[in-house]
Amino acid sequence: MQYLLVRQRFTDYDVWRKAFDSLADMRAAAGMRTTLVSVNAQESDEAVVLFECADAEAMRHHFASDALKEAHQRAGVVPGTNQVTALLPR
User: Fold this and answer.
1) Any idea what the Cα angle at residue 60 is, between residues 56 and 66, rounded to 5°?
2) Cα separation of 10 and 37, whole Å?
3) How far is residue 10's CA from residue 40's CA, in Å, rounded to a whole number?
4) Fewer CB atoms inside 10 A, N or C side of the chain?
5) pLDDT tens, 12-54?
6) How far apart are CA 84 and CA 82, in angstroms?
7) In terms of domain of life, where is this protein from (predicted)?
8) Residues 6+ apart with CB under 8 A from 36
């Protein structure tokens, strides 16, 4: 099991959240479980999301998918702000 920490800036939280929620089934099919969705307390235009990932390969396919790229456009993700960090529990 690994975790994935995602940080990205958005132009409007409600628009971002609607696009994020629209991919719930796709993430579940990739073995990803959302454990935390939050907004950075110091940067209110930055989403911080933590996923638990059961299948690293399926997760990589999800992050390379056209559906995710299209959702980022719909969500108003600010280009160049997407930061993804893989975390391994110890």
Assistant:
1) 150
2) 14
3) 12
4) C
5) 999 999 999 999 999 999 999 999 999 999 999 999 999 999 9
6) 7
7) Bacteria
8) 48, 49, 50
* Residues 40, 83 contacting (CB under 8 angstroms): no
In the chain, which ranges are continuous DSSP H helix? 13-22, 24-29, 56-63, 66-75
The one-letter amino acid code at 62 reads: H
For the chain, list the domains and their CATH numbers. Answer: 2-87 (3.30.70.100)
Q: Which amino acid is at 31?
A: G
Q: Is 40 left (phi over 0), alpha (psi -120 to 50) or beta?
A: beta
Name the amino acid, one letter, at 33: R
In sequence order, the β-bridge partners of residue 33 are 52
CA distance 57 to 63: 10
